[in-house]
Amino acid sequence: EVSGAEFYEHSFPKFFGAVMAANDESSALQAIKYKRGSLQLLDQRLLPFRTEYLDVPDVKAAWTQIRDMVVRGAPAIGCTGALAMAVELHALKGAGAAFGSAQEALEFINQTLDFLVTSRPTAVNLADACNRLKAVAATAAAADGASAVGVCGAVIEAAEAYLAEDIASNKAMGAFGSAALLAAVKAAGRGTAGGRVRVLTHCNTGSLATAGYGTALGVIRALSEQGKLEHAFCTETRPYNQGARLTAFELAHDQLPATLICDSAAAALMAAGQVDAVVVGADRVVANGDTANKIGTNALAIACGHFGIPFFIAAPTTTIDPDLPSGDHIVIEQRCHTEVTHHKGERVAAHGVGVWNPSFDVAPGSLIEGIITEKGMVPKKDGAYQIRSFMHNLGL
Ligand code: MRU
């Protein structure tokens, strides 16, 4: 048997032994590299064995790279979209000189963002980022003395702010989420004698899924920083293996005590009394707290309900969609059947069988112990999430 540490030590001797800050320039965990006029994405399809960055010269390239999973994870997709718009505008000869007027620039920006948002449908962060840039562009175009250069410059700055905000909000979620999770575990009479917790997570919600640090994995990082993490369990996350390839990589990189399990082993692990809490990310949280996240999330929420294990969602407010009343309205992305039938290009499934491959499912709000955001926990009234008033009070 090869331990996670030995395996990664063998594969990545240069990374091992150094706990590097997320989004550090030297870090293997930096999904997005940006400086004005230049955007690169870590090709996550090659992880954990190769670290290669691809250039993103414009929105068209970003659309393809998002669809093809070069970058994935709701917040990282939102940041990528915003920054792709920024580099494209920067390249258009001096940020706006290519446009005849502010109105022309505004129309181009709106059309380009409408196209970008079609790359992946379920995660709302990309739509949120595009809407934010559209609003900034509209305001700049309506200002006295508006110019194309001014409109483009305002959009570039807004895209850059979006990236910076994502890291800050992940750190805030780590603080709020670790406190809420520890309190819930204590209230459930779970955890170790020393007050430490064994936490299970699903998919990848870490530095690789965000601008840095992570959402659910950020909560696990925060627990570890506080000396409260007894153990982290990550699911392999079939069929795309974001857990086995990416979360396992991040946990090993940070040298956290961690174990990889098959998705189908989660209930058995809970039954064995090894899980004190579950925390996962989200692709879209709607008005009643129903939450779309990686396929298998609903099964985890149901199992937690059965065993009385607190089940948490960690998601920035950019993942909240208060306009949809319930999870039934969320468009669930269907992905290619070969993700299920093939392994490394080789067919492993019997010929002649059909395939159903939804990328996400919806965990009902009623099964969610708490929704962690960068602004604190979403309030509940009589057990029901108050998403709309929460967002309204934040001016969002
Ligand atoms: O298909 P993916 O890899 O983009 O799915 C990602 C997830 O479902 C994550 O759990 C979610 O986006 C939260 S990422 C912080």
Short descriptors:
396 residues, alpha/beta, seven-stranded mixed beta sheet, 18 strands, disordered N terminus, binds 5-S-methyl-1-O-phosphono-5-thio-D-ribulose, Methylthioribose-1-phosphate isomerase
Characterise this structure.
With 396 residues, this protein is an alpha/beta fold. Helices cover 41% and strands 16% of the residues. It is built from 13 helices and 18 strands. A seven-stranded mixed beta sheet has the order 6-5-4-7-10-15-16, sandwiched between helices. It has a four-stranded mixed beta sheet with strand order 11-8-9-14, covered by helices on one side. A three-stranded antiparallel beta sheet has the order 1-2-3, with helices on one face. Helix 5 (102-116) packs antiparallel against helix 6. The longest helix is centred in the middle third of the chain and has 40 residues, at 148-187. It starts with a helix and ends with a helix. The structure holds 5-S-methyl-1-O-phosphono-5-thio-D-ribulose. 5-S-methyl-1-O-phosphono-5-thio-D-ribulose binds at residues 72-75, 123, 203, 205, 209-210, 215, 242, 281-283, 293-294, 359.
Which helices and strands appear, and what pairs or packs with what?
Blueprint: H1 4-11, E1 32-35, E2 38-42, E3 53-55, H2 59-67, H3 74-91, H4 93-96, H5 102-116, H6 125-142, H7 148-187, E4 197-201, H8 216-225, E5 229-235, H9 242-253, E6 258-261, H10 266-271, E7 277-280, E8 284-286, E9 291-294, H11 297-307, E10 311-314, E11 320-321, H12 338-341, E12 342-343, E13 346-347, E14 360-363, E15 370-373, E16 376-377, E17 380-381, E18 384-385, H13 387-393
Parallel strand pairs: 4-5, 4-7, 5-6, 7-10, 8-11, 10-15
Antiparallel strand pairs: 1-2, 2-3, 8-9, 9-14, 12-13, 15-16, 17-18
Helix pairs in contact: 2-3, 2-5, 3-6, 3-7, 5-6, 5-7, 6-7, 7-8
The structure holds 5-S-methyl-1-O-phosphono-5-thio-D-ribulose.
The site of 5-S-methyl-1-O-phosphono-5-thio-D-ribulose has 17 residues, from helix 3 and strand 9.
